Amino acid sequence: MDCIFCQIASGSIPADIIYQDKEVIAFRDIEPQTPVHLIIIPRRHIPSLLHLSEADLPLIGHMVAITGELAKGEGVSESGYRLVISCGEEGGQVVPHLHMHLLGGRRLADELG
Hints:
alpha+beta; HIT family, subunit A; five-stranded antiparallel sheet; 2 helices; 5 strands; 22% strand; globular
């Protein structure tokens, strides 16, 4: 199990976990890009968006749905936040385990890049 996110999900690597259930875990990024920078991952290893099947749609819906509660808990639901999923190397995906970044706590640039 070389995947760092799988190791976090199994508890073999510590993380600042702020939410977990039987399907997903949310934790603070160790190199935050914004004052609020959370990572939401499925417990099950899915390498990227390209590896999703139709059977995974409820999981992705659940991941998106919990971000509203996470944003409230972090105090950014009213001011706004960004939810990002990167796919592949050129898309900026660093860890080959499907994950979402919840970013907030300051004004984010309108342009990408």
